[in-house]
Amino acid sequence: MGAVGALALTALPAWTAVAAPSATAVISEVYGGGGNSGATLTRDFVELANAGSEVFDLSAYSVQYLPGTASASSQWQVTALGGSLAAGGHYLVGEGTGSGGTTALPTPDAAGSIAMSATTGTIALVSGTTALTCKTAADCTADSRVLDVVGYGTAVVREGSGPATGASNTASVARADSLADTDDNATDLTAGTPTPVNSAGQTPDSGGGEGGGGGGGGTTDPGTVRVHDIQGTTRLSPYAGKAVTRVPGIVTGVRTSGSKGYWIQDPEADSDARTSEGVFVYTGSTTPTVAVGDSVLVTGRVTEYHPSSTSQSVTEITGPTATVVSAGNALPEPVKLDETTVPDAYTPEADGGSIEALALEPGSYALDFYESLEGMRTTFTDARVVGATDAYDELWVTVKPDEHPTKRGGTLYSSYAEPNTGRVKVASLDTTGPVANVGDELSGTTTGPLDYSTYGGYILQATQLGTLSSEGLKQEVTRRQKGDELAVATYNVENLDALDDQKKFDRLAQGVAVNLNSPDIVALEEIQDDNGATNDGTLTSEATLTKFTTAIRAAGGPRYSWRYIAPENNQDGGEPGGNIRQVFLFNPKRVSFTDRAGGDATTATSVVKTRKGAHLTYSPGRINPTSDAWDSSRKPLVGEFVFHGEPVFVIANHFTSKGGDQPLHGRYQQPARSSETQRAAQAAEVNTFVKSLLAADKDAKAVVLGDLNDFEFSGTVTTLTSGGVLRPLITTLPPAERYTYVYDGNSQTLDHTLTTPAVTHFDYDVVHINAEFADQASDHDPQIVRIDVSRCRGH
Q1: Non-local CB neighbours of 630 within 8 Å, separated by 6+ positions
Q2: How far is CA 138 from the centre of its chain?
Q3: Angle between the N-to-C axes of helices 502-510 and 542-554, in degrees from 0 to 180, rounded to the nearest 10
Q4: Would you state the torsion angle of the CA atoms of residues 669, 674, 676, 679, taken in this order, to the nearest 10 degrees?
Q5: Which tens digits make up the pLDDT trace of 194-241?
Q6: CA angle in degrees (0–180, nearest 5) for 157-158-161
Q7: Helix, strand, coil shares of the chain as percentages rounded to 5?
Q8: Confidence at 18, pLDDT banded by 50, 70, 90
Q9: Which end of the chain is more exposed for a tag (fewer CB within 10 A), N or C?
């Protein structure tokens, strides 16, 4: 939740510079003394005015602030705008609030929380919401995005001969009524008593003042607009950008941390199931003074806040004034969330476009059903936890207990067409959330307003939280391999480097030595260089691997040896400076590594056919590392091992992440998965290499494994297995066991083990030790395959 979100770009004036005086929107007044000692007003503000004869669209603009004594480390702070500026009209932007003063601003048209200096600073009116980077007057006035600049006090960034002077705790700098703009701040603006005016023409003494909660005073008669009118029948409010007056409702929840505000719900519902009766009232940095059960009349401006560029929006009332009519009122009955109310279909489709303007169909689609309840009280009982408590004290439950259950209590994500409609995120408004693992239960009743968040979508903000009933989920321990079985595992150890705490090493080591029962070969993903994110060109991982293998030994495992190829500096993606790579650990008492020197970060290994079968030109080596498929991504590591006299080839992978893909719950449906393009190219490279191996020896025994960052039903895996050269072992498990990762309450497969056709006798296991638990050593579960090499084809 946050301040007014930037709306989609509309047709904008073709501003190219500010050398000529503005004939339309200008910054008309700036005041940074709000709430300071001696101030009358409680809040800083920026006022805009329109000197032109046409409406000026502000929906893709922002006001930005830079301290007057800006240093190299100073950054522009941004407040996004919305709506429009009428010809000859004013537009008020409320900023930081102080502890002093006695008089509130009139209801702002946009709200930010920038703590402006009373005496010196720069305000810019900017096309777009990307923060400026300029630090000089020349650079800023030359930026084509900058429409107007006001520097005051001793500000370096200003227009003309000098900044406007005289600003203080009790004085603003303002243009004359003519709004003359000669591009000289010292000439155009003078100091005087602050005179904020909003788009409705309201001033501090004309009513309509802002506030964080109660005490608004005035009439107790409701206005003509109700909450269901504001919410409308689509995801976008028909009142977006407009002021609303004395909207009635009962306060159903109050948020006093983070982005502050409260929810109101109209107890007099209309008959349209599409129109929500609840809405969030956003107070920004101001702690609300209303309480649950208060009957209030809220005046403010309706906005649509997008938590991210691809998310759905949250309808809010911003810059609010609230009049408390009465306290202790009964709350509206909550809407039940269960298998009888939540539809089985997930979302309407718009051919990849936005669904925001589509009329809601809450009886047909789960996303529409949840949207029709945005801001309203909802409730569920006895719900199973399907996503463990995270660092923000949030967890996931399913309100549909029979929807794709996993063996250990989660909810399986098994196709793009079935994202699991019963998943709901839960947070507590009043207390710290319980520490829950997958399979636990929130027993009894959980109730609160239904919100929408950046991460995960719809979230129930609980004012009443059920009691956690633990099901005692245990970490799995796989069996030890037999003497004639080669055990090969893969484990994503989540950005491990030598500077990490010993506790992390010990927990990961326990996973290898105990839970995986000391495999013969372990392919590790996300091993970083020896100083992690320190970006100084360090490439080796010797200290990291020494520390890790020592911890494994201390946990009862073998003394592992290792092989890897160091990447080029900052060329393999991952955390900047970390130089992430794959690594082979192997137990030299059980398996030997065939070293063939010459492989490096940019030299490809290849397959040679001999009378004794296939071998690698370089071991360890990389698969075609200069291919565009691996741009800013990890390159596969290939190694040749010998077990009981038999060569075995292992290919460790870490394909590019899903970063940039649109979310399941977002406004674009069906969501675009743009990251698949690169993974498809990576899968094709590995597939080609495996085909070359089988061309040299059709009975070659190879294990392809690692974090592929894609599902077993994805195009990535289809490409990787093309031609029947590899078998995905995840599909050999019962469906309820096919997962290695839990995301947004969906148990899914991102990590894979695949084998060539000659590997005919094997035992495969995903070892669940992390993904389902609130306390994790890594966010991925490892997996292992035990191969009876003597019984495999071609032996």
Answers
A1: 572, 624, 682, 685
A2: 36
A3: 60
A4: -170
A5: 999 998 888 886 655 554 443 333 467 898 999 999 999 999 999 998
A6: 125
A7: 10, 35, 55
A8: very low
A9: C
CA distance 107 to 210: 5
Beta strand 146-152 pairing with 243-255: unpaired
Q: Token pair for residue 372?
A: 């029709």
The dihedral over CA atoms of 575, 578, 584, 585, expressed in degrees to the nearest 10, equals: -110
Q: What is the predicted pLDDT for the residue at 16?
A: 30
Token representation of residue 432: 């710290």
The closest of 351, 341, 352 to 399, measured between CA atoms, is 341
Please give the biggest Cα pair distance in the chain.
96
- Region class of 351: left (phi > 0), else alpha (psi between -120 and 50), else beta: left
Rg of the Cα trace of the chain?
31
What is the dihedral sign for C-alpha 783, 788, 793, 795? positive
Beta carbons of 607 and 596 less than 8 angstroms apart? no
Beta-bridge partners for 124:
64, 149
- Token digits for 78? 């941004």
pTM given for the model = 0.77
Lowest mean pLDDT among 432-436, 632-636, 648-652: 432-436
Contact 404, 412 (CB under 8 A): yes
Residue with tokens 């393999």: 572
Strand partners of residue 767: none
Beta strands in 454-484 (DSSP E): 457-462, 467-469
Whole-angstrom CA distances from 163 to 30, 64, 115 are 12, 16, 19
* CA–CA distance, 381 with 143 (Å, rounded to integer): 56
Strand duo 423-428 + 457-462: pairing: parallel
Asked if 578 and 495 touch (Cβ cutoff 8 Å), the reply is yes
How far apart are alpha carbons 561 and 583 in whole angstroms? 10
d(CA 482, CA 643): 13
Query: Does residue 269 sit in helix, strand or coil?
Result: coil
Helix (H, G, I), strand (E, B) or coil at 411: strand
Closest C-alpha to 416, from 671, 732, 733, 682 = 671
List all residues 6 or more positions away from 573 whose beta carbon is below 8 Å from its beta carbon: 580, 632, 633, 634, 656, 657
First to last CA, the chain: 61
Residue 363 token pair: 């009886």
Q: How many CA atoms lie within 13 A of 382 on its CB side?
A: 2
pLDDT of residue 208: 52
The two beta strands, 521-527 and 485-496, are parallel
CA dist list (Å): 428 to 221, 424, 466, 523 = 33, 13, 10, 40
CA distance 36 to 47: 19
Cα–Cα distance measured from residue 655 to residue 171, given in angstroms and rounded to the nearest whole number: 59
Q: Which residues contact 473 (CB under 8 A, 6 or more apart)?
A: 408, 409, 437, 438, 439, 440, 772, 773
| Three-class DSSP labels, 151-213 | EECCCCCCCCCCCECCCCCCCEEEECCCCCCCCCHHHHEEEECCCCCCCCCCCCCCCCECCCC
Helix (H, G, I), strand (E, B) or coil at 279: strand
- Contact between 248 and 317 under an 8 Å Cβ cutoff? The reply is no
CA distance 393 to 427: 7
Q: What 3-state DSSP class applies to 690?
A: helix
Report the relative pairing of strands 278-284 and 561-563 from DSSP bridges: unpaired
| DSSP character at residue 512 | I
Tokens 């006022």 belong to residue? 47
